[in-house]
Amino acid sequence: MKKKVLIITYYWPPAGGPGVQRWLKFVKYLPGFDIDPIIYIPENPNYPLIDESLISEISDKVTILKQPIKEPYKLAGIFSKKSSKTISKGIISDNKKQSFIEKIMLYVRGNFFIPDARIGWVKPSVTYLEQYITQNNIDTIITTGPPHSMHLIGLRLKERLEVKWLADFRDPWTTIGYHKQLKLTKISKEKHIALEKQVLNTADQLIVTSFTTKADFQKITGRPIEVITNGYDYEPVNEFKLDSKFSMAHIGSLLSKRNPEILWEVLRDLIKEYNDFSKDLELNFIGAVSEDVLNSIKKNNLSNRVNEVGYISHKEAIVFQKKSQVLLLIEIDSEDTKCIIPGKLFEYMVSNRPIIAVGPKDSDVEKIIKQTNTGAYFGYDDYESLKTTILGHYKAFQNKSLQSHPIGLQKYSRKQLTMRLAELIK
To answer: Domain Glycosyltransferase subfamily 4-like N-terminal, which positions (predicted)?
Structure first.
């Protein structure tokens, strides 16, 4: 008989973006390890990104529970549809460029909705799930955040019922980069920290996606912590041809602070120095791009090389990963972002295309790229080495020999990662 486990998550198809992929794939493979996943999600969520194609990946045998949620972002849209939409996507303008409305919305979001805008869903969810868990003899629950309100649902259920609780942190809580932009008062900061500490010290098992996050959490709690990174799945794609241009693709949001000016400067200088490079370069941005990034690109005379594709389905993004000559991975240059390992990294790694990553030095991403031999990693001041690497890739492109040579990728497959999760559940 399969073991039943209740998974409490906000993001679920038709939600798009990286937040949905992790548990969609776990749920796909858990039945193969004698675990029957039951999903609890909001009935009427306000997802900033939609990807209808992901619905086809959900087995019709999976039990899905839904309860209504009151979404403050919908109300905020009455005052400023643009600001509410960008903030819900995590795109926050630089302080000096924020409008008055955006400043007010950030202040309200940070201080009136703790830990996040889905806090109002906690109480009705606990009432509903307490009865469901009791009636269906469920002894294990999993919460996954952000939004970290999901962990508060787990916390309240743990207080009321004798259940095993696994808390999965796809991103950190109080140390994540955007947390500092929420204009928190001292009291609000203390409340966030207190809630985080309570969750970390109450859950039976903590799961994190990076070793840096594990080390940070170990300073707060003695509870067991397991690192289960995101990973890749084998994605069938139709026939495709490599781009004829020297295409460099970034898949995902390019936030205001995720702006590698050193990269734009290198590309500007290579265009000046090499006529062929000037003719061949193409920049493809798949996902939202902030005005700050576009302005930096314009300043370096690269705007005519840019193709803003915008948000596309996950399946379409996989095709871009496989046909692009080079894949770009950009992270904010901050101590807080050393622990961030984007889910797309693992899909990049199996695309057979070389990765060029720019981010904070000594990050978890840097370690993984070096261990798997899937690309090159640069700090925000590594001008010469970045320039040399891009020029080397361009020459290999001209010789039709540009590709990556990965090693040791199997441990990052979704099935292998689910096996490790199953061991924790049992």
So the answer is: 106-234
Three-state SS letters, 203-260 = CCEEEECCHHHHHHHHCCCCCCEEECCCCECCCCCCCCCCCCCEEEEEECCECCCCCC
pLDDT at 85 over 50: no
With 50 as the cut, is the pLDDT of residue 387 above it? Answer: yes
How far, CA to CA in Å, does 154 sit from each of 21, 167, 207, 293, 311?
21, 8, 14, 38, 32
- Using the predicted structure, report yes or no on whether residue 83 has a pLDDT greater than 60: no
Least-confidence region, from 189-198, 310-319, 371-380: 310-319
β-sheet bridge partners, residue 246: 281
Same domain, 331 and 202: no
Residues 405-418: pLDDT tens digits? 999 999 999 999 99
Among residues 397, 329, 331, 313, the alpha carbon closest in space to that of 171 is found at: 331
Contact 6, 38 (CB under 8 A): yes
Helix, strand, coil percentages (3-state) for the chain, rounded to 5, are 50, 15, 35
User: Any idea what the CATH number is for the domain that residue 134 is in?
Assistant: 3.40.50.2000
Specify the DSSP class assigned to residue 289.
B
With contact defined as beta carbons under 8 Å apart, do 416 and 33 qualify? no
Q: How confident is the model at residue 111 (pLDDT cuts 50, 70, 90)?
A: confident
> Is 211 in the same domain as 360?
no
Taking residues 105-116, report their average pLDDT: 79
pLDDT digits (tens, 9 = 90+) for 331-381: 999 998 999 999 999 999 999 999 999 999 999 999 999 999 999 999 999
Cα–Cα distance between 269 and 15 in angstroms, integer? 40
Contacts 24+ apart (CB under 8 A), 379-382: 379/333, 380/260, 380/261, 380/262, 380/333, 381/262, 382/262
Q: Can you give the length of the chain in residues?
A: 426
Q: What's at 20, amino acid-wise? A: V
Q: By residue range, what is the domain housing residue 35?
A: 3-69+113-232+414-425
- The rounded distance, in Å, linking the Cα atoms of 301 and 104 is 35
Report the share of the chain in percent with pLDDT over 90: 79
